[in-house]
Design a protein that fits this description.
The complex is a heterodimer of chains A (279) and B (358). Chain A is mainly α and 279 residues long. Chain A is built from twelve helices and two strands; from the N terminus they run αααααααββααααα. In chain A, strand 1 and strand 2 form a beta hairpin. Chain A starts with a helix and ends with a helix. Chain B has a two-stranded antiparallel sheet. The chains are: A mainly alpha (279), B mainly alpha (358).
Chain lengths: 279, 358
């Protein structure tokens, strides 16, 4: 999953590793918020346009029956990333090193085991079939282009804007409120977990046995679940005392500007062309 | 078959969050539609029992499901794994509430963290937020029926629920992957999405889950239940004690039917594999081929009387026969449902009208 974390796996205990995962999640979202605040093409767009365009392009990628069209759409994401001051090294690496690390391993056997006309003979009697190569490329390109699109949306849009934009897709308000609260409480719980494990770690000398570690991890999970439920009743009381009656009220202050219309139309055009070419 | 052991360790990692590109958009759509009734059911239960209270509850349980996936849990023998926590949430809160909370966690991972596909969100929710909690809960309840809260049997029930529930979820994921090359391929047979057939996908996905991921899920669920027995027993009674959330977890008998129906929809294009025409459904030309010397005049006339809107279950506009089959199945079921609903609506005396007359 991640190269840093797997290094020296055996030497570190589960507490450190969980702490490491928690810290990385916190870091990752800080990084995304930082990029979302930079000036750039996608950052200046209306989040509603961005969300709908992302969905449209994702559909175009998944419908395409032509590799060239998928490559073309990947090129579009590269241009968008470049115009939106997303660090290119990070953008390309995030997609091509980390994400399809799994997809790559999944795709490789397809080269050999898919029946079809032979493309190349390798030593050891291995045979690459044309059908297999195409199948593997389809999977790899489709997954990495889709992931690129999702990463672009995540990196260039503050999470609360994504939330508000969901309203356009007729997602019910209550659902949007729950999504927003969940997002906030994820961070609270991540900090809680981090505190729990740091305090435990600072009191441990030497190594714990596997059975002890397992008991610690599951007891912590139990504590976290109890705390979450207690907290939810407290939050409910707090919301009620501030006038919450079971449905949210939102203040919508967005306005579509000419640039938004133009970019939205452009994305729609690209999608239609891509779907048409990729039939 | 050979590829199964190679794929195993990797396929099992993809299971939890299918990225976009593995499933055809049609599969994602069908699975999304299959999840909708479960969401509806969950929201209804929440409305009945908790009202405004449910908003923060769902939010916190969803946040919990998100965070619990980061816990590394060591197994005997040196491997470690991550639990999904779906079985635990179902045991404590009932499958309806757990289903909604896990769905929220999965949607947040897709939209805000880029983990798991956006179009595939329906598929991920189906596997992890419907199959896992409902199956785990059914097993837990079946094994721990009429047993006191502090009984050891509940720990066993939780372990079985977690293990079997996650294995089932993996099985469904494997089936979704496995039907892709069957249904969606280019004209020359090139698979367009996940490339392996069922015979490879199912062992590659299910075997490693049986050995590692499901074991982690089972161990975590069991040990957390054991911890709650020692430290916080009321939490284990939330679902079972009347008053709090008992209503929120009654098992609908129709659920299994819906799942079966979904599997049937997905399987409809299997018919394409069979050669020939269904017995007794020959056209007049085929009748002639079959040795019937003549075709009754009336029959020949009647044949052209009615042109089906979805002839041969195909939608020519789509250019894909399998896809047409699946769509036809959905359309057909929707039509039948609407007709039945209309009949029931017409036949049932309406309460309001009756009262108004009195």
């Amino acid at each position: 999953m991640n190269t840093q974390a797997s290094r020296g796996r055996a030497s570190r205990g589960v507490i450190e590793r969980t702490l490491n995962d928690v810290t990385r999640a916190l870091e990752q979202s800080l990084f995304a918020e930082e990029i979302a605040r930079r000036p750039g093409l996608l950052q200046s767009l209306d989040p509603r346009v961005k969300l709908i365009s992302t969905l449209l392009l994702l559909i175009a990628v998944s419908l395409s029956r032509s590799l060239a069209v998928i490559v073309g759409l990947y090129a579009v994401t590269l241009v968008l990333a470049w115009r939106s001051s997303v660090p290119m090294g990070f953008f390309v690496k995030r997609v091509w090193l980390l994400m399809p690390f799994f997809t790559g391993v999944i795709a490789i056997p397809a080269f050999f085991i898919t029946p079809g006309p032979p493309l190349a003979h390798l030593p050891l009697g291995l045979l690459i079939t044309r059908t297999g190569a195409m199948a593997a490329l389809f999977l790899l390109l489709r997954v990495s282009t889709s992931v690129s699109l999702a990463v672009l949306l995540v990196l260039t849009t503050p999470w609360n804007s994504v939330l508000k934009a969901l309203g356009v897709l007729r997602v019910p308000d209550v659902f949007v409120v729950i999504l927003g609260m969940t997002y906030r409480y994820i961070y609270l719980l991540l900090h809680t977990v981090s505190d729990m494990f740091l305090s435990r770690k600072s009191r441990v000398v030497g190594r714990m046995s596997t059975a002890e570690e397992r008991r610690l991890m599951t007891a912590s999970a139990g504590v976290l679940l109890s705390r979450s439920l207690d907290l939810s009743s407290e939050v409910y009381l707090a919301m009620q005392s501030r006038g919450f009656r079971g449905y949210p009220r939102t203040m919508d202050t967005w306005k579509m500007r000419p640039l938004d219309w133009a970019c939205g139309a452009g994305m729609l055009f690209v999608t239609v062309i891509a779907i048409w070419l990729g039939r | 078959m050979l590829a199964s052991p190679v794929l195993s360790p990797v396929y099992s990692n993809v299971a939890m969050h299918i990225p976009d590109g593995y499933l055809s958009p049609m599969t994602s759509l069908v699975l999304f539609l299959l999840v909708l009734p479960f969401w509806h059911r969950g929201v209804q239960r929440l409305r009945q029992t908790m009202n405004a209270r449910s908003v923060p509850l769902i939010a916190l349980v969803a946040a919990f499901s998100f965070v619990i996936m980061m816990f590394n849990v060591p197994l005997p023998g040196g491997t470690t794994g991550h639990a999904v926590g779906g079985a635990l949430a179902a045991i404590v809160l009932g499958p309806e509430v757990a289903s909604i909370a896990i769905s929220i966690a999965l949607i947040i991972q897709a939209l805000f963290f880029g983990d798991g596909g956006i179009l595939a969100v329906g598929a991920n929710c189906f596997n992890m937020a419907v199959v896992l909690p409902y199956a785990s809960y059914a097993i837990y309840r079946a094994v721990s029926r009429q047993v006191p809260i502090s009984s050891r049997r509940r720990v066993l029930a939780a372990a079985l629920g977690g293990h079997i529930g996650l294995t089932l979820a993996a099985f469904f994921t494997a089936v979704e992957f496995g039907i892709q090359p069957l249904l969606f391929h280019a004209a020359d047979g090139t698979p367009l999405y996940a490339p392996y057939p069922l015979s490879v996908a199912i062992p590659a996905m299910v075997l490693p889950h049986l050995a590692v991921a499901s074991v982690v899920e089972g161990v975590v669920t069991a040990l957390v239940v054991a911890y709650l027995q020692r430290a916080n027993q009321p939490m284990l009674e939330l679902v079972e004690k009347p008053g709090v959330m008992a209503e929120a977890s009654r098992f609908g008998k129709l659920r299994a039917l819906w799942i079966g129906l979904g599997v049937l929809i997905i399987a409809t294009p299997l018919g394409l594999l069979a050669p020939g025409t269904a017995w007794g459904e020959w056209s007049s030309r085929e009748l002639a081929h079959r040795g019937l010397g003549f075709v009754p005049e009336r029959l020949a006339k009647l044949e052209t009387l009615w042109g089906a809107p979805l002839a041969r279950y195909d939608l020519p506009a789509l250019g894909n026969t399998s896809l047409g089959y699946v769509l036809s199945a959905i359309l057909g079921i929707a039509l039948v449902a609407v007709v039945i609903w209309l009949f029931t609506w017409l036949l049932t005396p309406r309460q309001a009208a009756v009262q108004a007359e009195d």
